[in-house]
Amino acid sequence: MPNLHFHDLRHTGNTLAADMGVSLRNLMARMGHDNERAALRYQHRSAKADRAIADGFDALVQAEQTQDDDEDDDGSAGALVPVT
After folding, report:
1. Is 76 helix (H, G, I), strand (E, B) or coil?
2. Is 28 exposed, middle or buried (CB count within 10 Å of its CB: 0-12, 13-18, 19+)?
3. CA 20 to 30 Å from 39, out of 4, 63, 73, 75?
């Protein structure tokens, strides 16, 4: 392909790896970098990563709500405590 350079493929592959959640240390090892600054270039913000984070938070909230719904007793929440 004309105008395609090896570095373009390297950048794409490392960006996709970062989008999959590969840690910074693993990206550094994959690329042969010895400092974090160089590896951070591949940690682009992406809609895919944002969606994965939002889905993870949603799962945590849903699990907590399900657990709360299964409990019959609210514990001491809302209980009056005598003042002496």
Report:
1. coil
2. middle
3. 4
Q: Considering the domain boundaries, does residue 72 fall inside one?
A: no
Q: Tokens 């390297």 sit at which residue?
A: 10
30-40 confidence digits (pLDDT tens): 888 888 887 78
What would the pLDDT profile of 8-20 be if each residue is shown by its tens digit? 788 888 888 887 8
29-63 burial: b if 16+ Cβ within 10 Å, else e: ebbebeeeeebeebbeeeeeeeeeeeeeeeeeeee
Tell me the residue range of the domain where 55 lies.
Answer: 6-65
Q: How many CB atoms lie within 10 A of CB 70?
A: 7
1 in a structural domain: no
